[in-house]
Write a structure and sequence with these properties.
single chain, GMP Synthetase, Chain A, domain 3, 4-stranded mixed sheet, flat, disordered N terminus
């Protein structure tokens, strides 16, 4: 097995992954960008969208390249997305009704449109390399640290939206450290939660909520006595979100994927339509890695694919089973798939407004997404 996530010579090791909630400034930007994308795809399935967002204090900048049948109201879409997250307090600099939306959006370069083309030989929307990964250490075929970090973050948001903890605010980060022995997870060692809260909230009460309510529910069968909890280690976290920190699309690429357990090609997902292989090919590689693991060919599988802009067929495809199965059978299985962008889009039915639901708590390991089917 690779030393990257199995530990040298099989010795025990700790591996840590983090997640963030939908109110984290970077995720606010991702959510606005994917909201813009979905709005265009709902009207024009062939729209080309590359939307970038920046948020800080009372300013939202929407920028990028969009070519579609008509131009939509980006400002209204941004405000609705911010409202859905929960930034509605008019006393804060960043709130849905009070922000100023600045727009710098042009059409996609004609050269790119010509290079990409249409039909089954549609070329890749950009050059680059993408990875997909699957492991049998959870039934969702995800690495345990990132899976649990996402569950903690998502449960924080659910408790806030449901009004179960009225002092919770949208911005938060979670982190989980898992002990591995012989390459397999055996127990959760440390849980770190930093959550924004109402002004004046007692930190002891926040820590008690994390230990007694949040963790038992989110960690489920991995909850146990003896876990070390670190809660709001910097002290008060009453100032957060874009009112306090700057957010930008595409800065949470490890949170979005495998929490560091697998390679990453460097391309972000949010705001990009499926002609951009940064997104669609990464989804497809995850789908294929799942198929390899589900078939029992290997316990872990990582797929890499690389493209040249304007060319339909990838320049390379590679599979790694980390010594956990039959590499020849895995190679044969992977090579049976069609990696051309148009084939990926068709097989996963990607020309639909399905991307806003992917923005938060990981693009992988969640039911209802076509690459997880």
């Amino acid at each position: 097995m690779s030393d990257r996530t199995s530990g040298r010579n099989g010795y025990p090791f700790l591996f840590t992954s983090e997640s963030v909630t939908e109110g984290h400034p970077d995720k606010v930007c991702d959510f606005i960008a994917d909201s813009v994308l979905d709005a265009y795809l709902a009207e024009d399935s062939r729209a080309h969208v590359a939307c970038e967002v920046l948020c800080k204090c009372g300013i939202v900048v929407v920028a990028g390249e969009i070519t579609a049948a008509r131009t939509l109201d980006h400002e209204a879409i941004a405000r609705q997305a911010i409202r859905a997250i929960g930034y509605t307090d008019a006393s804060e600099a960043f709130n849905a009704d009070g922000v100023t939306v600045v727009q710098h959006v042009t059409r996609q370069a004609a050269e790119i449109g010509t290079a990409v083309g249409k039909g089954l030989e549609q070329g890749a929307g950009d050059q680059g390399l993408m990875f997909g990964y699957a492991t049998d250490e959870t039934k969702e075929l995800m690495p345990l640290p990132i899976f649990l970090a996402h569950r903690l973050a998502r449960t924080l948001a659910e408790d806030r939206h449901a009004g179960r903890q009225t002092w919770l605010r949208p911005d938060a980060k979670t982190q989980v450290s898992v002990l591995y022995e012989d390459g397999r997870p055996v127990e959760v060692k440390t849980v770190l939660v930093s959550t924004m809260h109402a002004k004046g909230k007692d930190q002891g009460e926040i820590a008690a909520y994390v230990r007694e309510c949040l963790a038992p529910k989110a960690l489920d069968g991995w909850h146990r006595p003896g876990i070390e909890y670190i809660v709001n280690p910097s002290g008060s976290f009453a100032e957060g979100g874009p009112s306090a920190d700057c957010g930008v699309t595409g800065r949470k690429i490890i949170v979005d994927t495998y929490g560091g357990s697998a390679h990453h090609g460097g391309g972000a997902f949010s705001g990009k339509d499926p002609s951009k292989v940064d997104r669609s090919a990464a989804y497809f590689c995850r789908h294929i890695a799942r198929e390899v693991v589900k078939a029992g060919i290997a316990r872990r599988a990582e797929i890499q694919v690389a493209y040249a802009i304007g060319q339909a067929r990838p320049v390379s495809v590679k599979v790694d089973t980390f010594g956990t199965g039959d590499p020849r059978a895995a190679e044969e299985r992977v090579q049976s798939f069609d990696f051309r962008p148009a084939a990926i889009i068709e097989s996963l039915d990607l020309l639909r407004p399905i991307y806003r639901q992917t923005t938060n708590y990981g693009h992988f390991g969640r039911p209802g997404l076509p690459w997880e089917a």
